Amino acid sequence: MRINKYFIIATVSLATLIGTSAMISAETEEKSHEMTIAEKPQHQQQMTINKTPGVPRNVTFAGSSIDLTGQDRRERMDREMLSFSYSHINTMLQIKRANRLFPIVEPILKECGIPDDFKYLMIIECNGDVEARSNAGAAGPWQFLEKTGREYGLEVNGEIDERYHIEKATRAACRYLKDSYKEFGDWLTVAASYNTGRANVSKRVAAQKENKAINLVLLPETSRYIFRLLAAKTIFSNPKAYGFHLKSSDLYPTIPIAKTITVEAPVSSWADIAKENGLTYLQLHEANPWIRSASMEAKSGKKTNKTRQSKKSYKVKIPSSKGLKYDPTKTVAHDKHWVTE
Fold it and tell me: Cβ of 99: how many Cβ atoms within 10 Å?
């Protein structure tokens, strides 16, 4: 009987403990549920930070004012503004890289008589990455295809690919753009033809009886392309207005060039040339991304007379060793509108 008594007492105690535990658990769950309910409005409020960027009533491209108040234009511009505003990584990198590229590209555009706004076309083509390459084989800052690159004077092969040569590729792009302007007489239409080809634009101009690309039914990619170009200029003009807050130290500076050497083909080892100049092959390549192989075979240059042909030579940049270890706090913004300080 004593065993039964203790058994009963133990059973009652256990039941009491379980009941108390269940009550505590229920209370905790209820409080947790109450906290979730209480926090939900705050969470919803926080989500409203993601706002739609404003669409300007008009933009200026290559000296021409473009009205964006019409339904079609406004909504196409809105899409690209949203894409830039919420593709944070790409847009940030584009601005950072532009600080290094624009000082090189702008003087060439001016010299060649191409509107300065076409530097934004280069940005949307390559995202500011000089070594960008598309699935279709377009390469370099201006994304030339092999055939087009050669047509406009660039050397393209497995050892040397001048589509990656920022200065030469920019000059080739200028020649292409000038040829397009002779045909279309409108710079935004020229930009559209850079994306889809002159023949495609000419065909649509004739069929649709409109001479400006912004009024044409184009391939979806090209239709977006011209508004992506306008959106890029708009955001670059005032990044902080669209949520991009950068300091000068966030930007990538132009790497100073210590000297330029002339190298004749053949080259048995670019790495040896790099070492001779206090660099690694990687550093030499980054300063000269048009070098696409560790060596280079003999190449023929221009004929010096009827019987003799010169060796082909190349100008190779040797970056400053000090510049390769730059102090970001000393970086100067190419455009004061890009930074908040």
Answer: 23
pLDDT digits (tens, 9 = 90+) for 219-272: 999 999 999 999 999 999 999 999 999 999 999 999 999 999 999 999 999 999
Please tell me the distance from the alpha carbon of residue 170 to that of residue 15, in angstroms, as a whole number: 83
What does DSSP assign to residue 241? Answer: G
pTM, full prediction: 0.84
What does the pLDDT read at residue 158?
96
Report the C-alpha gap between 223 and 244 in whole angstroms.
26
**Three-state helix/strand/coil letters over 281-333:** HHHHHHHCCCECCCCECCCEEEECCCCCEEECEEEEEEECCCHHHCCHHHCCC
Helix 118-126 × helix 88-112 angle, to 10°: 140
Q: Do residues 133 and 156 lie in contact, with contact meaning Cβ atoms separated by under 8 Å?
A: no
Residue range 107-128: mean pLDDT, rounded: 98
- On whether the CB atoms of residues 338 and 251 are closer than 8 A, the answer is yes
pLDDT band per the 50, 70, 90 thresholds, residue 33: very low
Cα-flanking dihedrals φ and ψ of residue 153, to 5°?
90, 10
Q: How far apart are CA 163 and CA 145, in angstroms?
A: 8
**Angle, vertex CA 151, rays to CA 180 and CA 204, nearest 5:** 35
Give how far the C-alpha of residue 135 lies from the chain's centroid of Cα atoms, to the nearest Å: 16
Residue 67's φ and ψ, nearest 5 degrees, are -75, 125
How many other C-beta atoms can be found within 10 angstroms of the C-beta atom of residue 166? Answer: 21
